[in-house]
């Protein structure tokens, strides 16, 4: 019984820490303490890459990719989901089309058989 209690004492704080970790929400504007803001459109479970856009003075500024762990690391210490009052006072407008992903696999050079030397 004491051994089980010891295991629970170790597991509970770890589980509790995971439960309190904020999740990254899609299509939600995040406002950061340094004045920047961003929105995540999607994340790939396979690569961990997220398609996101940042804003400058409320207007769409740049779109790109970052790893989910990089974006999640900003929450909640530096960035938070924009509140309704913040959205009304400072709406974020515009959407930049996504660029080709640098994280997606590309065919290997010469992978189509053209130019391959016979051995």
Explain what this protein looks like in three dimensions.
There is one protein chain. This protein has a domain at 22-89. Residues 2-21 have low confidence and may be disordered. Strands 4-3-2-1-5 form a five-stranded antiparallel sheet. 25% of the residues lie in helices and 26% in strands. It is of the alpha+beta class and 119 residues long.
Radius of gyration over all CA atoms, rounded: 21 Å
Report the count of strand segments.
Answer: 5
* Oligomer classification: single chain
Spatial separation of the terminal alpha carbons: 67 Å
Strand percentage, roughly? 25-35%
Largest sheet: 5 strands, antiparallel
Strands of the biggest beta sheet: in what spatial order? Answer: 4-3-2-1-5
Query: How much helicity do the residues have?
Result: 25-40%
Uncertain residue ranges: 2-21
Query: Would you tell me the overall average pLDDT?
Result: 78
Order of helices and strands: HEEEEHEH
* Secondary-structure class: alpha+beta
* Silhouette: globular
Number of helical stretches of at least 4 residues: 3
Please give the structural blueprint.
Elements: H1 2-20, E1 29-32, E2 37-43, E3 49-56, E4 59-67, H2 68-72, E5 79-81, H3 84-89
Antiparallel strand pairs: 1-2, 1-5, 2-3, 3-4
